[in-house]
Design goal:
Porin, 356 residues, alpha+beta, globular, 21% helix
């Protein structure tokens, strides 16, 4: 027996014991995973220690006392105002809203002495497919009707009749087709551009730009807007409007609106000042009491009109069919401020995804 081979035998035994110990310490892989490792498709999963949990610090005192109440109140004021505008279908708010809407209004107006007049209006804002609500087809009766207030709409329906003298703004009963593009939002200001023309002949093209921004100050929601307009038959005009809205409680809301419209065809501004008190006793009924003053800045024209209006609006079927009753008294400078009384009945039908 060769004694020189004994140390080598002990060395080989020690290496074999070390290898078996390391193999036992490794994770046992199933045959499928071993085959994937051999093919180079995957590697054994390595368990990593979970990331350390970050300590949550309490919100600063200024956030609890100032930011959160301010944010909640701002959202509440804006939501309440938006809900009321949608219920009353205010024309300029409908023009600025998103989504597709088709509005058909049919009304009949009764004047003193048994005189009666009727009229139907169609307004549509249709979002074109695959444009993400940034391109709309607009159908409207009268170019300025799309961006006027509800008070202006009602008083023009009355003063545009044969019973009373019309105020400064011209009457336009033609239908127009336009394409409106939401250009951008810059520093919170929404910008849009629209171009179109009158149905029928002679063709009367127009271009309208609009910019508006909403602010929140304390419990007031403020909207300021500017609407330049060019119309081939009438030239240039620009309407500047600001309104202040404040909810008094869950049922009452107060709004003040100031508007000035400049026209290139005249040397003055058409001015409007409207104060409105809204009352919503239930989700299906709303009432507005309005006081309005409309006059040109040139006082020599004697076209001032003062209005007292009560508008009662009732949702008579689901959320797309409304009945509106509007008694109104007008005091016109052209008639020596004698009272002209009228009663308007309006049936309004709304179409669109939001009304399904």
């Amino acid at each position: 027996m060769d004694l020189s081979l004994i140390p080598r035998a002990f060395l080989l035994a020690a290496l074999a014991l070390t290898a078996s110990t390391l193999a036992a310490a490794q994770t046992v892989l199933d045959p499928q995973e071993q085959e994937q490792i051999q093919d180079g498709l995957s590697g054994p999963e390595l368990k990593e220690s979970p990331p350390p949990v970050k300590e949550q610090r309490p919100a600063p005192i200024r956030e609890n006392l100032l930011d959160r109440p301010h944010g909640f109140l701002s959202r509440s004021v804006e939501a309440y105002s938006r809900k009321l505008d949608n219920f009353f279908s205010d024309p300029n708010r409908a023009y600025d809203s998103t989504g597709s809407t088709l509005q058909i209004r049919s009304h009949v107006t009764f004047f003193e002495g048994g005189v009666r007049e009727s009229k139907a209006d169609v307004h549509a804002n249709i979002s074109l497919p695959n444009t993400e609500d940034r391109l709309k087809l607009v159908v409207q009766r009268g170019v300025e009707a799309a961006t006027q207030t509800a008070a202006e709409r009602d008083i023009k329906n009355a003063t545009g009749s044969a019973q009373v003298a019309a105020p400064g703004a011209p009457q336009d009963n033609n239908y127009y087709l336009g394409l409106k593009a939401l250009a951008a939002e810059l520093f919170g200001v929404a910008l849009s551009a629209e171009a179109g023309a009158k149905f029928g002949r002679p063709i009367d093209p127009y271009v309208r730009l609009r910019a508006f921004r909403d602010f929140n100050f304390s419990q007031w929601q403020i909207r300021a807007s500017e609407t330049p307009l060019w119309k081939h038959s009438e030239g240039y005009s620009a309407a500047s409007e600001v309104n202040f809205t404040r909810p008094l409680d869950e049922l009452w809301q107060l709004r003040f609106t100031s508007k000035a419209t400049w026209r290139s065809t005249t040397s003055y501004f058409d001015l409007a000042q409207i104060g409105a008190l809204y009352y919503t006793p239930d989700p299906r009924t709303a009432t507005t009491f309005e006081l309005g003053a409309f006059a040109p800045s040139d006082r020599s024209l004697k076209l001032a009109v003062y209005s007292v209006t009560l508008r009662v609006r009732r949702q008579i079927y689901r959320d797309w069919l409304y009945l509106e009753v509007t008694p109104q008294i007008l005091y016109q400078e052209a008639n020596g401020f004698s009272a002209t009384r009228s009663l308007m009945l309006n049936l309004e039908t709304l179409f669109g995804d939001r009304y399904l």
